[in-house]
Amino acid sequence: MATDEFSLIAQYFSVCGTAGADTLLGVGDDCALLVPPDGELLAVTTDTLLASVHFPLDSPARLIAQRALAVNLSDMAAMGATPRWFQLALTMPEANQHWLAEFSAGLNAMACQFNCALVGGDTTRGPLTISITLMGTVPSGQALKRSGAKPGDTVYVTGCLGDGAGALALLESKLSPRVEDGDYLKERFWRPQARVAEGLAIRHFASAAIDISDGLLADLGHIVKASKVGAVVGVDNLPLSHALCCSADPERRLNWALSGGDDYELCFTVPADKLAKCQRLIDEGELTATPIGQIIEGQGVRCVDKQGIPFEICDPGYQHF
Question: Which residues are 234's β-sheet partners?
């Protein structure tokens, strides 16, 4: 039974994920020793999840772990990078053996799915908080950034929008969907499918990209600000899941799609001369993405309906402070 930090790490986290020849030294020493592939850049991202802020306090440990790593993987996907290693800083009120076993099992399952390995971190006592630093690699010159969008580019999103906010409403007992729709929404919240494969595919033609964590409007807003351009989004083009459409009224689900956040889909822009490449991947089933708008001269993001009439935005998206 784990009784101190070192035995706890050895019992629950010494083997988590898939360590390859690029990991010379992993969990258990003062530092990890890693070997990035020749000619590739190191991509690094960190996300922190706090109980009662990013997930309900009584949530199952396995699901918390899966979500914590998934949101980092989504950042890696938005950069067009391959995830390789991660570190975990885990703060918890007590070293509960059952909770730790479930947490490490969930973390290992997600790490193995995306072929990355835990290589270090820290544990301490306090309010339940999970911080993960994920490291990956991307070939030099191929990283997707927020600053490359140009007027005339088409704006795309992967998957469906609004499910994350719908799921949160369900978890907070503010939504009462059918059982099958509720199961779908909860799966989308706890196991968001990081679009790593899609990120690797679009880096060959996308001009800019970001993952949708704070809401489409907020995150597309980051692209247009970094690129010094504007964007117009057709609200009738937004992809919505069948479960969400069956669970919420049109106004509610549309606001969730625009501003709800927690979808962890990709928003990316494609120049006119690269649209055929994007469409080919969509036609071949290798990319699930929907065109939703255009990059334009100017600044900011505005929304219109199918008649081109401005759509009033009630919520600009999640604000961290």
Answer: 304
Three-class DSSP category at 279: helix
Whole-model pTM: value is 0.89
Question: CA 37, CA 233: separation in Å to the nearest integer?
Answer: 39
Domain residue spans in the chain? Answer: 5-139, 154-304
Tell me the two tokens of residue 175: 């939504």
How is domain 154-304 classified at the architecture level of CATH? Alpha-Beta Complex (3.90)
Beta bridge partners of 269: 155, 208
Confidence (pLDDT) at 321: 38
Find the farthest-apart pair of alpha carbons in the chain and give their distance in angstroms, rounded: 65
Q: List the CATH code of the domain at 5-139.
A: 3.30.1330.10
Q: Which residues pair with 157 in a beta bridge?
A: 267, 290
Specify the pairing of strand 154-158 against strand 289-296: antiparallel
Which tokens go with 184? 């779908």
pLDDT of residue 18: 61
Angle at 230 between CA 229 and CA 236, to 5 degrees: 145
Burial class (CB in 10 A: 0-12, 13-18, 19+), 60: middle
Q: How far is CA 98 from CA 63, 161, 311, in A?
A: 14, 35, 49
Over range 27-52, report the average pLDDT: 84
Q: Which residues fall within 8 angstroms of residue 81, CB to CB, at 6 or more apart?
A: 43, 136, 137, 138, 143, 199
- Through-space distance between the first and last CA atoms of the chain, rounded to whole angstroms: 40
Residue with tokens 């799609």: 257
Over residues 304-309, mean pLDDT = 87
The helix or strand, by DSSP H or E, that contains position 24, with its residue range, turns out to be strand 23-25
